[in-house]
Amino acid sequence: MGTGYGAVSVKNKIFHTQDLCLRTNLRCAKNSAGIEIIKEVVTAFLVENSMYKSHNTSHILQIREKQTVQGRCDRKIAFIYERGS
After folding, report:
1. Mean pLDDT, each 10-residue run in order, the chain (85 residues)
2. Dihedral sign, CA of 44, 49, 54, 56?
3. Domain ranges of the chain
4. Distance CA 12, CA 8 (A)
5. What is the pTM of this model?
6. What string of DSSP letters covers 19-56?
């Protein structure tokens, strides 16, 4: 293999591969945890929104789109809400 940027020597190839696997698995675990949190937020929003509608309160729900950082930052996944008056 070459000696330029990104080159891996044959001597260290096994360790390099293991390091990549560990980093990839850690990233996947973090993404899975993030997705679970997002599901909880969306569920809480849906429940509370239906309660407000059924009780005819004067509160207004303002929905803000939250862009999550997961792997790549180009996906918009969840909605965060807050009560307004």
Report:
1. 50 53 56 56 59 46 41 44 48
2. positive
3. 10-84
4. 7
5. 0.19
6. HHHHHHHHHHHHHHHHHHHHHHHHHHHHHHHHHHHHHT
